[in-house]
Amino acid sequence: MVTVMYRSGRVLDVALKLAAAGIPCFPCSANKAPATPHGYKDATADSAALCELWRNYPGALIGVPTGNSFDALDLDLQHPEALQWYERHFDALPPTRTHETPSGGRHLLFKRHPDVRNSAGKIHPHIDTRGTGGYLVWWPATGLPVLSNVPMAPWPEWLLTEFRPKPQPPKPTNGHVPFRGDAWLRGLVRLVAWAPEGQRNGILFWASCRAGEAVRDGQAVEGLVVDVLIGAAKHAGLSEREATCTIQSGMHQP
After folding, report:
1. I want to staple 153 with a disulfide (CB 3.0 to 4.6 A). Which of 91, 94, 97, 201 is the partner?
2. 171 near 131, Cβ under 8 Å?
3. Parallel, antiparallel, or unpaired for β 119-124 and 127-130?
4. At 192, phi and psi to the nearest 5?
5. CB 134 within 8 Å of CB 128
6. Per-residue pLDDT tens for 125-156?
7. Strand, helix or coil at 147?
8. Largest pairwise CA distance in the chain
9. Distance between CA 211 and CA 110 in Å, rounded?
10. How much helix, strand and coil, in percent to the nearest 5, is found in the chain?
């Protein structure tokens, strides 16, 4: 367990500065649990109310609700699965404000998006998201570093596909048996290449999931499948980097 050293006065000072910037806060205990009766619902950006909160419910840490002005991607990098995911997708993640956590993990803060929900391990094991109805601990108040102080970026489209309904496969019209020969791959390529704007990432993700099943069943070679899907995605208007991330995420779904 990581012990966080703090001074209560300094923590409140930081909370007041956040509140002055329009970011509501509330006290959390040293174990990261809310110290107030109603948790993130007690958060406020009013300085007098904030001082009253800390007077009645002294907290070692600052809690900040998510889904208001920003959401968060929470990476527990002490776990190899999360670290490998982060290294694999690092180049596809836009520069955004980033906090270090006591375990050596990361909080990546993104502009609020209505599709983002609270999740645990949905994107990948030991990778969580915080949106409306969630909160995070503002670790810089304890002296942990802000690893990137750039403005918060919008969520990358390839990550948003994780929260959207997956496109349904086209209904078979010729009795074709999936993964026999290469007709299945040609069908996926056509589906991706002509995907309408606004659905391109979602369709590519679904196609990549199906392609991953074929690879695991020994019906296809991964390198070839990735190359043809990237080509189809570029035809649809996606960048190679964005397409590669979506394909890798879909093909390696458990």
Report:
1. 94
2. no
3. antiparallel
4. -70, -45
5. no
6. 999 999 999 999 999 999 999 999 999 999 98
7. strand
8. 71
9. 30
10. 40, 15, 40
Model pLDDT for residues 64-108, shown as the tens digit of each residue: 999 988 999 999 999 999 999 999 888 889 999 999 999 999 999
- What's the CA gap between 83 and 77, in Å, rounded? 5
C-beta neighbour count of 80 within 10 angstroms? 10
Long-range (24+ apart) CB contacts under 8 A made by 170-179 are: 178/210, 178/214, 179/213, 179/214, 179/217, 179/219, 179/220
Mean pLDDT for all residues in the chain: 86
Of 33, 117, 122, 108, the closest CA to residue 77 belongs to: 108
Instruction: Please say whether the beta carbons of 129 and 87 come within 8 A.
Output: no
Nearest to 227 by CA among 218, 215, 217: 215
